[in-house]
Structure formats: C-alpha cells, structure tokens
Amino acid sequence: MSATGYHGVFDHEKRDGQEFTIDVTLYTDIQPAAATDDLALTLNYGELAEVVVREIQSGPYDLIETLAERTAAAIFSHYDDAAARLVALDLTVHKPQAPITVPFRDVTITIHRERP
After folding, report:
1. Residues labelled as active-site residues
2. pLDDT at 84
3. For residues 51 and 21, what is the distance between their CA atoms, to the nearest angstrom?
4. Average pLDDT of 65-82?
5. Does residue 116 carry a pLDDT above 80?
6. Under a CB-based contact definition with an 8 Å cutoff, are residues 64 and 88 in contact?
7. Of 26, 68, 99, 103, which sees the most CB atoms within 10 A?
8. Does residue 7 contact residue 67 with C-beta atoms inside 8 Å?
9. Residue 113 and residue 106: Cα distance in Å, rounded?
C-alpha cells in the first residue's frame, strides 16, 4: 500500500513529502473463513489498506522505524474486535526516495510483531 508521507529527519522531507510503501503479512487462522467463504470470519484486507494509508499520512515522524511501529500498533488495534484473531504480522516500510547521495533502489525496515 502506498501514499504520500512527510517523514524524515530533514525539513524538506517534512515539507515536500514523498511516497512510502508498506507491505504487510498478517498471520491468522483462515480455515473458518475458507470453509464457509465468509468475509466476516477473516481479516478484511480492504480495511487493512485504509489503516496503513492513514498511518503513512499521519505524523510526521523522523524515522521510518517509528512509522513501522505505529503502523503495526494501529493494525493490531483495528483487528481487536475481528472474528478472526490476528496472531502476528510482518511489516516492511519502503522509502525509495530517501535522500541518499549514492545510487540505491530502496531503503526499508522490516519488523515482526506478535499480538501484545
């Protein structure tokens, strides 16, 4: 999921913004949803996308580490009342336009978090 965010340690990053992408892998038991073909028994990834984009657009934060932790916390909070239990997640924040002076493709931070 991608959106413009205003994160970084430099003033121009907070002023001008840049694209951030966040990849999320959710860990849950999908068997009840798969057996019944019922969306209410799984974690709705449409809702996930909205949570992630909202977090990218929040802040600003100096560090992508902060963005990663706050996004993970928001995801767990969003799924607190879901019929399916979110057990854990992997989350990667991509900052492909980071202000680095050498050639690079992407800057990322990846975290694994389990339900608090």
Report:
1. 95
2. 85
3. 13
4. 96
5. no
6. no
7. 68
8. yes
9. 22
Q: Which of 100, 93, 85, 76 is nearest to 9 (CA)?
A: 100
Residue with tokens 């690079």: 104
Amino acid at 39: L
Consecutive H or E run containing 114: strand 108-114
- Cβ atoms within 10 A of the Cβ of 94, count? 19
Q: Is the pTM of this model over 0.85?
A: yes
CB 33 within 8 A of CB 84: yes
Q: Which CATH number fits domain 2-114: 3.30.1130.10, 3.40.50.150, 3.50.50.60, 3.40.50.10540?
A: 3.30.1130.10
State the pairing for strand pair 88-94/2-5.
Answer: unpaired
Residues in the chain: 116
At residue 31, φ and ψ (nearest 5 deg) are -60, -45
Look-up of token digits 């840049």? 18
